[in-house]
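User: Before I run my own analysis I want an independent prediction to cross-check against. Here's the chain; please return only the structure tokens and, at the end, one sentence I can use as a sanity check.
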Amino acid sequence: MTSKTIQNLQHFVGKICSIISTSMNRAFDESISREHFVIRVESITQDGIWGTHPYNENLLSFFAIQHIISIHQEVELDPLNPEHEKAIKEYESKTGKKLEGDLNNKQNEKVNKNKELPIIQEGTPTSDENLDQEGDATFVDIRNLEMLAEKSRRTFQANEMFNKTF
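Assistant: Structure tokens:
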């Protein structure tokens, strides 16, 4: 593969794509194929394509360049986006079918996992239990702290993994 091809393939980095590869001795139905061959492309090198699962960035995939036949960018619809919602409703009215996303509830988990943490007003206790004897407030929102730590851990892990030269 030429360096110009690798350069042009960079268009797919960060996008949801289907990877078509040479045949293998396993048969997959449509939903299993999406689970294995649809990825969010993280990097493309002369060795192959690295990617993560669309709704679980902890699942890493690699496709060796010599086995890749083609790569196709997919349309990622977000039902919370008004433009996408309009396209979904238009499709449903034309076909008479309710559109079920590939991600179903997993997409909602992704949205909740990645949303910004709520702002806590400094010095405002959330209950009387947080007041010590002098009347000062001591409050730590453990759930949000754990979410922040997990998101930071995954970000550092992904940066370490994808910034290495393979």
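Sanity check: Residues 3-76 form a domain with the SH3 type barrels. fold (CATH 2.30.30).
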